[in-house]
What does this fold into?
Amino acid sequence: MKTHRFLLGLRNYFIFFMTVAFVTSCCMMLFLTTLSRTMGIDFTAENIGDAAKVTLINVLVISLLFTWFDYFRRKQTVEIPIRRITEAADKIMQGDFTVQIEPMAHDAQQFNEIIDCLNRMARELGSVETLRTDFVANVSHELKTPLAVMRNYAALLQQPGLDEQTRMEYAKAISDSAWRLANMMTNILKLNRLENQQIYPQSAEYDLSAQICDCLLQFEDVWEKKDIEIDTQIEDGVTVKADAELLSLVWNNLFSNAFKFTEPGGKVSVSLTATDHHAIVKVTDTGCGISAEVGGHIFEKFYQGDSSHATQGNGLGLALVKRVIDILQGSIGVESAVGKGTAFTVRIRRN
It folds into this structure.
């Protein structure tokens, strides 16, 4: 490294020497020629030799000063910024995403642009790492619960002398946990494919009114069991040009949440209206509602407003809904009040 710097300094000195020597010699020759012609002075070889020696010494000194000046200039404006950027990049490669580089002086604007990009990249990587860590922690937690249930009930099933009713209850608990586990893994795979753009919308014009009715009827057993009142205001013949399979994920998740959080004897309302450019679907329930704080996180993966996990879920449904709506270039909003219920409004482009 030191040898390289020495050779680089030597090369710069040679360049400065040749430049200064050429410029000084040209200026000196022009000066002496003009002086000789205008004043009639004849210069002897001895005079020219003495002047050449003095000029050579001046050229050597000036070249040396230029070399030192260039060295310190490059050190301040190039080497130090590059070293700071390189050190930060090394830390990022080692997994330290807290790195932030202080901007340079105003005359290093191009380096400041690189530094700004590097700082933003570090912050983004830090956010991704946080999400990855949270994702792993949440998956581990969500996997642990059904697996613990399955293990405990499997151990209970091994006890001798169980009556048929008890055995069926234990078996059903294992089956429900296995279903919950399988459903969670399916949703994780779907969400991963959506986020990595491995699912591309297959847009085609179809009857949205019929699709919403069909999806709603799939929950008939649920609302009858809980004695939930259903109020539908669905315009007939509303068509959209979108991916029907992806949108079915949206309606199934919204309906599932509405029935899950609505108490027995409550009410779930579904409406569909249309404008020239959008179809507007609103799903309203009279459930427990959510606070403003919870409402700001409900579209995040694995986030569950019910921290006690009293209701069955894994916090992936609304994340899927939000991702599908984003892919289809629609919008979704939520209005809720604790103890009064929740309303989700989805806007889908019709063409």
